[in-house]
């Protein structure tokens, strides 16, 4: 994945305070408040900071967790995974955009959801936008 440089002032002005806090400071939007939590529209979910394609609607599922959930990214190299010990002793896996290093959410494995990968990619709505398929 080719790296993208982001003008931070322009990004903050374009996406707003909450999205900027999520993308740059690994904040989290409140559960069940995100625009894409329950949407079933068809298309591609893209990074709000750099427009890189991250997920497709075909991999989205209703997990009931309060955030949009996917069972796999569009491409394995679309995201970067980082060990997150911010809630120690609980260890999580942070998901970032591989192109611009923006925080997106977390991925959880082995929770028993009936999806092909047994993974739940729990992604903040404010970290992405949906490019609807026409």
Please tell me about this protein's structure.
The chain has 134 residues and is mostly beta strands. The protein has a single domain (8-132), classed as Metal Binding Protein, Guanine Nucleotide Exchange Factor, Chain A, CATH 2.170.150.20. 13% of the residues lie in helices and 35% in strands. Strands 3-4-8-7-6-5 form a six-stranded antiparallel beta sheet. A three-stranded antiparallel beta sheet has the order 2-1-9, with no helix packed on it. A hairpin with a 5-residue loop joins strand 6 and strand 7 (103-109). It is globular, with a radius of gyration of 14 Å.
Strand arrangement, largest sheet? Answer: 3-4-8-7-6-5
- Please mark out the parts with pLDDT under 50 across 5 or more consecutive residues, or reply none: none
**Arithmetic mean pLDDT:** 95
Task: Spell out the CATH superfamily.
Answer: Peptide methionine sulfoxide reductase
Q: What is the CATH T-level topology?
A: Metal Binding Protein, Guanine Nucleotide Exchange Factor, Chain A
Q: Examine the secondary-structure arrangement and name the CATH architecture.
A: Beta Complex
Tell me the number of helical segments per DSSP (H or I, 4 or more residues long): 2
Query: Main β-sheet: number of strands, strand sense, barrel status?
Result: 6 strands, antiparallel
Rg over C-alpha atoms, rounded to the nearest angstrom:
14 Å
Q: What is the CATH level 1 assignment?
A: Mainly Beta
Question: Roughly how many Å apart are the termini?
Answer: 26 Å
Share in β-strands: 35-45%
Overall morphology: globular
Our count of domains comes out at 1
Secondary structure category = mainly beta
Helix percent reads: 10-25%
E-strand count: 9
Q: Give, in order, the helices and strands.
A: HHEEEEEEEEE
